[in-house]
């Protein structure tokens, strides 16, 4: 807890993140209306006491939809980052520790994925498999794991020749023990920091794909999808785009700033 | 560490731009005015369209529509703004007493854009080419023989075809110079035809046309026509507003207010011949009459059209739109909006929510339906979501599947849907007979491929057979009314609404007009306003 | 001394490396040495002469190109798998750099007990007990068990290294420049600790060092290595009587040579 006292900025951002997470968890109870239930007589209403942020094209309460969208955006992003980190770490550890042809194959593959324009590949994958939340996560997973693999591999290469790894071998440790006890714990902090910093980016990518029609499908209250749906009414009912856009901006910014300060807090202790 | 901080700033920037894009665009557009000097004064016409054609081969798919819309191809006949058949490349025609032989007089002095004369022989070759290349031609009419002599074309049909002149107005029968096919790739470079404009270059996203020096019907006003395909309706509206194009077709309901009442633009909005409907698959869960009836009467079509689409569409009821006189008001819809009745029907059919998840189920199967939708027309996803929302209250789980427009036709033929949204022109031959029989006459082993829904009613088929041979106008009208009533009683499909159709032009142009039949967009009548 | 048991013996060990520019570099050539029970064998030479490569070859970290290694008479040159793992109970090593010899994320208790855990399950409570016992042997306070490596001084860490090397009760411990990174006064205390442990447990050391003075102080015998080859072997207290020119050169560059008491 001294961490928070010493780093006021980090404490502040963590507070905001916690707030967002709580919003996400309790969204269904906090939302004043059912995000899916539209009163078609009250279509495209401007913000009012009844509907804080107005209603959308089917008469649904935008405020409720944005709140419930927090749940989706956050959990999808967390899921995605966790998966990417796991896959990337696995590949990076295998490549870095065992070297040889395994490393060559894995890292050439990773290089390919890195060289490929991410959004294009994600669109192609989502386009073939169809638009849905799961397919978006899959598509973005395929495109994004390589960064972690590269990172973890270079960390492992540095670690591999350190004395304590040699010591572990001398002490009769099996390869699996070395990987589990020595390599992973020293690799994880960097992975966690990178992951935390990526939450914001992944949220944006998910929203982006949904905006293009490849991610969440109607009637899901996902922010990117809401942006897309609001395009038609940008001149007559701009609040349909403004509020989801603001939501994305604010949440992504908070997560990015938090990840940044997290790295500042953790890094000095690394060496 | 320093570059990491820079990297994060970049991400922040991305967040800023995406999030504020909505607000920024609004501000921008509010203050944005159109370009005052237009390219129309310089001999270039710019038209914003939505184009589904991958090629300009008039016999492929429905691509002939685009060949005609772009001012390239013409037929023997055409429709006027009252849907009456008028002469075009055929000057006049007559029918024999036995109703089997049609004689067309081909207009004198007409040349193809390459200078070749338009003779009856050329017409014959073109029509035979259409029949050879696309099976759909035979669903219009079948001929025993076609004879050509000078400027006289004779077609002997297998059966009496009352609507023959109307059939020949279909873009499938655009008259092309078949002799030019050896040295020219019609699909990529466009066919040689008789229209005011010919192709300079074509890709799906943009066509550039140039003046046809051999045009037969008067002066061609523009040297060049640029036709970008802007599929997204809002982007199209914005292009028109900003002056990027001088005219645009099918502006969406959400944008109409920007142009109505704006002095700079001329809005031509008319009742169209189109119906927006959801075809229903009669082979899956919707095989059950009660479920279909419940689905249809669970949809509040009045609200969809008057409120969601701001009255730019008329509420759906019957297959044929009220813009044509086929008994719209007298027809009764047993499945008018009645959600209580819908719930009762579903209960009677055995669909109940046994596990409390909000979705009805029966024998372990949930009431889940796939609604296939395409979104090149703005109202289609809106209808789909409104239907999804209304039916959710009744315990249906509607899953919206968005696909590319080009896949829809095949999916319809193969029946790969539970509901399939369609915006269909009902009287492409001036008469709804073809439309009705294409989708609802029984499909015996592929003889009626457009009907992939599995719907079949022998009483209906009998009416169709009668209609096919009936030449008397009032008798035809009554038969069409009967056919519609049967379809309504059977709950054959969900008729959602009837679009107004529009074409909007900057007042630097004159002569821009919307026709009910939706084939004629770029004509030689469009010229710079003086 | 010649009738003491030979624990470890190497016969003409050769090891070559290929450098990044393709040139071959001979690290060890025909290195033959014997290590007796309960004795300290000093191994000296300048940096890069092959001392570390040699001992790592004994440990099995590099395979020897040719030659043999015997432990208690058994040929262990080409051991692999489970048999090689089992050698950990007999031969252990203490590293030069106390700042890299330990996993920064592990507590001292776990660092010391890890060798045990490689062969049997040990509960946390038992681990702590064993660790504290060993910490006592290396003259460290019991609280150290719950600390992290970066919280200890260089000398304390080196004692932990010794504790870790001891826990499996090996017969041979190789000290690879174990004192070279420490302050001079600390070096002295570590050397004394090593000597004490040898008296108590009878463990043999191979003591690698480039400081001739320190080596002569604690080694029973000294082997001098130059460019991968052993050039001279002497009794520890007779270093001053070295014959080989290289050894003489090493001697002359030392400021003083301490005589054993």
From TrEMBL, chain A:
Principal subcellular localisation of the protein: membrane
Superkingdom per UniProt: Bacteria
InterPro entries according to UniProt: ABC_transport_permease, BP-dependent_transpt_permease, MetI-like, MetI-like_sf, OppC_N
Single GO BP term: transmembrane transport
Transmembrane segments: 12-31, 74-102, 114-143, 236-259
Keyword Signal belongs to the record: no
UniProt membrane topology term: Multi-pass membrane protein
GO cellular component: plasma membrane
Location of the protein in the cell: Cell membrane
Database matches in Pfam families: BPD_transp_1, OppC_N
Record key words, sorted: Cell membrane, Membrane, Transmembrane, Transmembrane helix, Transport
ABC transmembrane type-1 domain: residues covered: 70-259
Family: Belongs to the binding-protein-dependent transport system permease family.
Annotated protein name in UniProt: Peptide/nickel transport system permease protein
């Amino acid at each position: 807890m001294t961490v928070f006292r010493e780093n006021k900025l980090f404490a502040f951002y963590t507070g905001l993140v916690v707030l967002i997470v709580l919003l996400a968890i309790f969204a269904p109870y906090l939302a004043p209306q059912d995000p899916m239930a539209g009163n078609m007589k009250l279509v495209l209403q401007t913000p009012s006491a009844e509907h804080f942020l107005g209603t959308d094209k089917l008469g649904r309460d935008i405020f409720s939809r944005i709140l419930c969208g927090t749940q989706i955006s956050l959990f999808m992003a967390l899921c995605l980052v966790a998966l990417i980190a796991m896959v990337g770490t696995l590949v990076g550890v295998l490549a870095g520790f065992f070297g040889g042809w395994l490393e060559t194959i894995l890292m050439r593959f990773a290089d390919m994925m890195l060289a490929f324009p991410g959004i294009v590949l994600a669109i192609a994958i989502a386009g073939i498999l169809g638009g849905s939340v799961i397919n978006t996560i899959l598509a973005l997973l395929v495109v994004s794991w390589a960064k972690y693999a590269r990172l973890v591999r270079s960390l492992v290469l540095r670690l591999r020749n350190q004395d304590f790894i040699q010591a572990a071998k001398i002490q009769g440790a099996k390869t699996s023990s070395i990987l589990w006890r020595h390599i992973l714990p020293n690799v994880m902090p960097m992975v966690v920091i990178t992951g935390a910093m990526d939450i914001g980016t992944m949220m944006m990518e998910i929203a982006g794909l949904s905006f293009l029609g490849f991610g969440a499908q109607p009637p899901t209250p996902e922010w990117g999808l809401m942006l897309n749906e609001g395009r038609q009414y940008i001149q007559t009912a701009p609040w349909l785009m403004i509020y989801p856009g603001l939501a994305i901006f604010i949440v992504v910014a908070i997560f990015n700033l938090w990840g940044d300060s997290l790295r500042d807090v953790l890094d000095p202790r690394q060496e | 560490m320093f570059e990491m901080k820079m990297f994060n700033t970049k991400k922040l920037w991305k967040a800023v731009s995406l999030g504020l894009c909505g607000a920024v665009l609004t501000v921008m557009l509010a203050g944005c005015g159109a370009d005052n000097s237009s390219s129309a004064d310089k001999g270039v016409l710019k038209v914003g369209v939505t184009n589904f054609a991958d090629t300009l081969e008039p016999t492929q798919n429905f691509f002939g529509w685009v060949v005609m819309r772009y001012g390239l191809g013409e037929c023997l006949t055409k429709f006027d703004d009252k849907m009456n058949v008028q002469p075009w490349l055929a000057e006049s025609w007559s029918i024999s007493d036995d109703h089997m032989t049609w004689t067309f007089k081909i207009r004198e002095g007409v040349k193809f854009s390459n200078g070749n004369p338009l003779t009856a022989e050329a017409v014959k070759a073109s029509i035979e080419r259409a029949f050879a290349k696309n099976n759909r031609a035979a669903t219009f009419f079948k001929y025993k023989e076609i004879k050509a002599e000078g400027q006289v074309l004779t077609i002997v049909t297998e059966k009496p075809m009352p609507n023959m002149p109307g059939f020949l107005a279909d873009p499938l029968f655009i008259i092309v110079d078949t002799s030019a096919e050896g040295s020219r790739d019609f699909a990529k470079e466009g066919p040689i035809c008789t229209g005011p404009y010919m192709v300079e270059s074509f890709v799906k996203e943009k066509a550039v046309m140039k003046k046809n020096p051999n045009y037969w019907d008067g002066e061609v006003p523009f040297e060049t026509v640029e036709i970008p395909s802007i599929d997204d309706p809002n982007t199209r509206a914005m292009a028109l507003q900003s002056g990027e194009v001088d005219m645009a077709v099918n502006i969406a309901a959400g944008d109409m207010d920007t142009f109505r009442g704006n002095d700079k633009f001329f809005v031509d909005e008319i009742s169209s011949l189109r119906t927006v409907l959801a075809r229903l698959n009669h082979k899956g869960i919707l095989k059950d009459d009660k479920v279909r009836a419940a689905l249809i009467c669970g949809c509040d079509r009045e609200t969809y059209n008057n409120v969601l689409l701001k009255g730019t569409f008329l509420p759906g009821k019957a297959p044929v739109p009220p813009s044509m006189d086929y008994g719209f008001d007298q027809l009764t819809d047993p499945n008018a909006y009645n959600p209580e009745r819908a719930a009762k029907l579903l209960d009677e059919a055995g669909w109940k929510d046994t596990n409390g998840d909000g979705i009805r189920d029966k024998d372990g199967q949930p009431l889940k339906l796939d609604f296939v939708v395409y979104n090149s027309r703005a109202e289609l996803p809106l209808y789909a979501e409104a239907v999804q929302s209304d039916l959710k209250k009744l315990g249906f789980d509607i899953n919206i599947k968005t696909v590319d427009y080009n896949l829809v036709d095949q999916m319809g033929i193969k029946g790969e849907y539970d509901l399939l949204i369609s915006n269909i022109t009902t009287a492409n031959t001036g008469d709804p007979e073809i439309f009705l029989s294409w989708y609802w006459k029984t499909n015996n082993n592929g003889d009626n491929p457009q009907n992939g829904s599995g719907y079949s009613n022998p009483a209906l088929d009998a009416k169709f057979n009668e209609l096919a041979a009936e030449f008397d106008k009032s008798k035809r009208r009554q038969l069409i009314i009967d056919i519609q009533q049967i379809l309504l009683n059977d709950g054959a499909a969900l008729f959602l609404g009837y679009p107004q159709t529009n074409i909007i032009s900057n007042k630097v142009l004159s002569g821009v007009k919307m026709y009910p039949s939706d084939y004629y967009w770029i004509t030689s009548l469009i010229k710079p306003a003086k | 001394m010649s009738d003491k048991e030979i624990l470890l013996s190497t016969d003409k060990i050769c090891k070559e490396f290929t450098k990044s520019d393709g040139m071959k570099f001979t690290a060890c050539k025909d290195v033959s040495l014997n290590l007796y029970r309960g004795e300290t064998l000093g191994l000296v030479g300048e940096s890069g002469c092959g001392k570390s490569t040699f001992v790592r070859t004994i440990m099995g970290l590099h395979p020897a190109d040719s030659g043999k290694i015997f432990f208690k008479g058994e040929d262990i040159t080409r051991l692999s798998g489970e048999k090689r793992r089992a050698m950990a109970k007999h031969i252990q090593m203490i590293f030069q750099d106390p700042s890299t010899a330990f996993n920064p994320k592990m507590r001292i208790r776990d660092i010391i007990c890890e060798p045990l855990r490689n062969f049997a399950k040990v509960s946390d409570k038992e681990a702590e007990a064993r660790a504290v016992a060993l910490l006592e042997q290396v003259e460290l306070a019991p609280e150290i068990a719950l600390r992290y490596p970066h919280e200890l001084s260089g000398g304390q860490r080196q004692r932990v290294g010794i504790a870790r090397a001891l826990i499996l009760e090996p017969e041979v411990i190789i000290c690879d420049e174990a004192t070279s990174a420490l302050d001079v006064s600390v070096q002295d205390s570590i050397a004394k600790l090593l000597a004490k442990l040898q008296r108590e447990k009878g463990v043999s050391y191979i003591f690698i060092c480039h400081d001739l003075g320190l080596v002569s102080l604690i080694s029973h015998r000294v082997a001098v290595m130059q460019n991968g080859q052993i050039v001279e072997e002497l009794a520890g207290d007779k270093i001053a009587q070295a014959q080989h020119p290289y050894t003489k050169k090493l001697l002359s560059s030392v400021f003083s040579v301490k005589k054993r008491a």
